[in-house]
Amino acid sequence: MRSVAFSKDGKWVVTSGSGNTTRVISAVDGAERCRVTHPPVAFLTFADAVFSTDGRWVAAVRESAGGVVFNAETGAVRCRLGPAFHVAYSPDGKWVATVSSDEVSVRVFDPSSTQERCRLSHGGPVNAVAFDQTGRRLATASTDGTARVFDTESCAQLLSKTHNGPALTVAYNTRLSRIASGGRDGVVRLCDPETGMEQPPLHHEGAVGALAFSEDGLSLATGSADGTALLVTATTGAQRFKLVHDGEVEAVAFSRDGQRLATGTADGTVRIYNTQTGNRNAELVAHNGVVRSVAFSPDGLRLATAGDDEAARVFDVQTGSELLHLAHQGGVLMVTWAFRGDRLCLATASTDGTARVFDGESGAERFRLAHDGAVRSVAFSPDGLWLATGSADGTARVFDMSTGTEGLQLIHQGPVEAVTFSHDGKWIATGCDDGTARVMASLAQQ
Predict the structure, then answer these.
(1) Closest CA to 292 of 335, 254, 260, 322
(2) Looking at the 3D structure of the chain, how many domains does it have?
(3) Can you tell me the distance from the alpha carbon of 321 to that of 332, in angstroms, rounded to the nearest whole number?
C-alpha cells in the first residue's frame, strides 16, 4: 500500500498500492465501491490519491504511470493527468495540483476543463474536423457520407451536405464564411455554413482527400486521386488552374502569404506552384513512397513533408535543397509547424506510435511523445505552447511544449483520426472512428 485517505465525511476510504489499482472502499464494512486500473509498471515507488472536498471525485497519481481524476461512485474517468508522485485538491474543488516525478514541476489543473462541451454523433467514422474563427462552429466530414456544421455551444446541427459515398475531408474558410468538403465520389462541395447556400460543385475523376483554403480566404486548393489539384476562387468556385501530376495528389498546402501552393503525391514527389500564374516553381523527389502531408513554415521559407518511407523532410523553398532528414520507425502521416516564442518547431505524427517535436532549424529532436498506437494527427495550439495528438489507441492527448509532459488525455471509443485547436486555443475538437466528433476545453486556456 502506497497511499490511503478518508473522504471528508469519513464514510469512504481511497487506497492506492503496487497492484496497479486505486480503490474506493466503505470505511464501515470494507466493501469496494469502485476501482480504477492503472497501466502496469515494473516497479512502483510513489502513488497518491485524495478525495475532493465534496467526496464526488478522486484524484490519483502514480510516479511513472500517470494519474486520473475519476468519479468516486462509479469509477468513470473524468480526465487524465501526467506522471506525478503527489496530488492535492483545492478546498473549493475547482483545482487539482500535482508534483511531477522529476520533483521540479508543480502543475495545476482544472479537472472540469476536460469535460466535453459537446459530442456530435454521426453514422460512421469522423475523418476530419475544422473550426470557424470564433470556435462556435465546427465542420465535420464523415464516412457516413455527410459534411456537417454544428453549433458548439448548443450542440445543434446547423447544416448537412451529402456526398455519394464517404466524406473524406473538410476545410473552413474563416474569412469568408465558407466550408468545403471532399468525398470519395470525387466531388468538392462549397457552401455558406450560415445560410446553406451552395455554389456549383467541383468535380474530379477520383476521390478528393485533400483541401486547403489560403489564409486570406480567397483561394481553395483541392487534391484528388485522379492526379490533379485544382486552384479555384473561393468566393465563386471558379477554376483558375488545373495542376496535373503523375500520381494521386494526397496533400495540398498554401504558404501563409498565399503566393505558393505545395502538393504531395503518391509517387513521392512534391511540387511548389506560383498561385498567381499556376507555374511550377519546383519539383522535389521528396520520398520513396506516398507523400502524406506538406506544410510551409510560418515564414514561408521552409517546406516540411511527411512520407510512408519512415521520414519527414524539410526543404528550402527557394533552392529546393533538402535541409533536414528526420528519421522515424514508421510511416509519417502528418507534419505541422509553430513558433514557440522565437523558436521554430516542427511536429510529426507517425505510425511508429510517436508524435515528435523537432527544432525547425537544427532538426534536433526536442520531445518524443509515446502512444499505444499509430499517431494519426497532430496540432499545435495557436501560441505554440501545447501540442494535441490523435491516436489509433483511442486517445487524444495534450502535451506541454515547455517540458514535453502529458497534461491531458481524452479517452475515445475508437481510433482518433483528427484533432485541431480552435483559433483562440480554448477548445480542442476531435474526430473519431466511433462516429463522434467531440469538442472539449483545452489546457491552453488555463
Answers:
(1) 335
(2) 2
(3) 20
